[in-house]
Amino acid sequence: MTTTQAKEKLYALEARLCAFEHAAGLLYYDGDTAAPSGTADNRGRTLSVLNEEIYQLVTSDETREILTTLKAAENELDEKTNRIVTLFLRSMEETARIPMDEYVEFQRLTNESSAVWHEAKLADDYARFAPYIDKIVGTLRRFAGYVRPELSAYDYLLNKYEPGLTTETLDRFFADLRESIVPLIARVCAAKPIDESPLHVPFPIDKQRALTDAVMKRMLLDRAHVGVGETEHPFTTNFSKYDVRITTHYFADNFASGMFSTIHEGGHALYESNTADELAYTRLGEGVSMAGHESQSRFYENIIGRSRAFVSLIAPELRALCPALESVSEEALYRAFNASRPSLIRTEADELTYCLHILVRYEIEKKLFAGELTAKELPAEWNRMYREYLGVDVPSDREGVLQDSHWSNGMFGYFPSYALGSAYAAQLFSKMKETVDVDGDVARGDLSRYVREEKLDEANYLLFALALRYVSSLENVRNPHSRADFPARLALDGSQPPTAIRLSSTLARLLPQYDFLEPVIPYAAYDDFRSFRAAAPCDLASLAISPRYAPREADFIADVFREYITEV
């Protein structure tokens, strides 16, 4: 098989796998949203067939030949193809270590478990769901031994969602978090409580659906490609960047729950919808990690959604949909949205106490996979930790150990992504504020800056273009009398000017084991404009006029230059 043939077969295989995963994903989505309660067994049969096909495609001899051929020719391949090969090889090797019958059975088990969880939560009947916890934990322990025997079972699971992450790293992260947050929560709780009654006025469900439409419109979610459904526990699933489904849940006496669920899941949808077109129908057309994903959802949910500016933006629509809010001031709404107090439900927790909910789940998951806790003992341990960490008593399993759907779907190791994502979002926001008027944009209803790169100013666009692989080379015609001020940290060889640059990877710094690398971008500097000849048509040009280096009479050049480019 030639390299060209192998590359063609690789992309055809990726498209075929996406098709099977699309079909399986639709069944999972339907099972959690609209499917009748008695259809789980039938759905499980279909999923078993689909997952068997997926397993065989991933682990076949032909797939191995394609990948080994391309791996041997990696110096001849583009970066996108090489990255697909690297990730696909990893997936193939790990999947092949799991016997096919066990792989397929696990998919059937989680489908059944999800259906039972829904019924158990509604009935507040944990005993009905408990056997599935033991089965799923036992299966995942066994898979960990097959796939990554050098890791603990729980570290294996963490790596599925955040490559390179370990319990050692998380223990340090949560220790620092607890040291900072717990005393602050104590101070907040000692203060006069905020009036949260505006959140609990009667708000008809049909009007809340209209609010969801309004929020999605504000977030620039394309309803032709982003659907919204209703479920017991909100989630987002993507079949491609062209078909993303979010879900929410409405409470007649707590409209904020559904609104913030929509904003959170909408953040996920924006991340998926705005991946590069050329990555669609490949494994690169997804989030880089689940903490990366959650950074986007938590950014929109908390930093945008709970901001004073967003409250001003959404308040008129809230009042139009809910007459009971007509007399409530924007300030009262803002304070109610940001009230901080220990609570029972993770998805409704405030920004300050939220990570303690994650810490409870993290500690429980570690104990389950270390063999220190059984499913039967889980509710008592859950309730004990909620009293210890949050100071609240859990009145029922429905509001306690049954509140999240993740474990029923086999997603052990996922919860820490929420805490890491919250931390990433805070850091992103801190940096953004240096150059972006976030509150001003939100108050004006202009969220386009955070969705579509063409709204960025030219300097920031250039950085994004580099990071997102829109730029294959960079040429700089500069003033020969200016100082050599190119950031040395970006130059591969440290020279001034460099011959190639690479942006630093935040993820790589946070997780040294993570093998993600930003692309190498060839760079050429011209000190004499007369010597510059573009090697190819330019996709992006930026003209900088500096008052330090250029006389005012040279400003006319900008108007001349403008005739030859399409302005962003």
Give a short overview.
The protein is mainly alpha-helical and 568 residues long. Helix content is 54%, strand content 5%.
Distance between the termini: 44 Å
Based on secondary structure, the structural category is mainly alpha
Instruction: Could you tell me the CATH topology label of the largest domain.
Output: Neurolysin, domain 3
H-E string: HHHHHHHHHEEEHHHHHHHHHEEHEH
As laid out across the biggest beta sheet, the strand order is 1-3-2
CATH class of the largest domain: Mainly Alpha
Task: Please report the number of helical segments.
Answer: 20
What characteristic shape results from the CA principal axes? Answer: globular
By DSSP, the count of extended strands is 6
Query: How helix-rich are the residues, as a percent range?
Result: 40-55%
Sheet-strand content, in percent, reads under 5%
- Mean pLDDT over all positions: 86
Enumerate the spans where pLDDT stays under 50 for 5 or more consecutive residues. Answer: 453-461
Count of discrete structural domains = 3
Major sheet description: 3 strands, mixed
- What radius of gyration results from the CA coordinates? 26 Å
CATH architecture annotation of the largest domain: Orthogonal Bundle
